[in-house]
Amino acid sequence: MIRNNGRLQVTVANIPAHKLNTMHTIVVTADSGKKTYKACALSYVYKCINSPTSDLEFDAMRAMYEYYKAAVVYKA
Predict the structure, then answer these.
(1) What is the span of the domain harbouring residue 70?
(2) 3-class state of residue 59 by DSSP
(3) Is residue 32 part of a domain?
(4) Is residue 29 part of a domain?
(5) Rg of the chain's alpha carbons, rounded to an integer?
(6) Which of 41, 60, 65, 71 suits a disulfide with 18, CB 3.0-4.6 Å?
(7) Do the Cβ atoms of 27 and 12 come closer than 8 Å?
C-alpha cells in the first residue's frame, strides 16, 4: 500500500515472535522497474527506540523488543 507521504507500507504476515529479527527480502515492482529490499520486523522498532517521536512510542517499541527477547529465550 502506498501511504499519503509517498512511502510504501509492506506487511509480512505470520512471523513467529522469536523470529522477528530474521531478515526478509522484499521485491517491489513499479513502472520504473524492480527494487529489492532487505528488512526485518524489528528494523522499525530499532529506529523508533533510537529516535522516538514520543514517550508513548518509545515505551511501545521497548515493549515489542522485550517481547521478542522473551520469545527467543522461551524457544531456546
Answers:
(1) 17-75
(2) helix
(3) yes
(4) yes
(5) 15
(6) 71
(7) no
